[in-house]
Design brief:
The chain is an all-alpha fold. It is 73% helix and 0% strand.
Length: 108
């Protein structure tokens, strides 16, 4: 076993991976794979620098709202959260659509 594997196993034994956000939930990677590979690489560089692009912030907001919606019991608040999710999703879609058009224009 390598040094990294033993560090991971020790952390698991201490419970450091217990109760992580989104634990036990499937990961939605559609938006990730719908993003062009070159853009994903740029996002990785920005992330390592501690800078998040607007699209990523929107995806994080959407995920957080979906978690709140799943936990919410009152119909009124569920309705409000659904509207917020739709608003953020529309904003994300418009932003990515504009970027795709700009890339197509630049490649002509």
């Amino acid at each position: 076993m390598s040094g990294i594997e033993s560090i991971i196993r020790e952390a698991m034994a201490r419970g450091e991976f217990d109760n992580l956000p989104g634990a036990g939930k499937p990961i939605d990677l559609d938006a990730y794979f719908n993003t062009p590979e070159d853009v994903r690489a740029a996002y990785a560089i920005l992330k390592n620098a501690g800078i998040l692009p607007q699209e990523i912030e929107l995806l994080q907001d959407i995920a957080a709202l979906k978690e709140k919606l799943a936990a919410e019991k009152t119909e009124g608040e569920q309705s409000h959260l659904r509207k917020e999710i739709e608003k953020k999703q529309l904003e994300f879609n418009l932003l990515t659509e504009r970027q795709q058009k700009e890339r197509r224009s630049a490649s002509k």
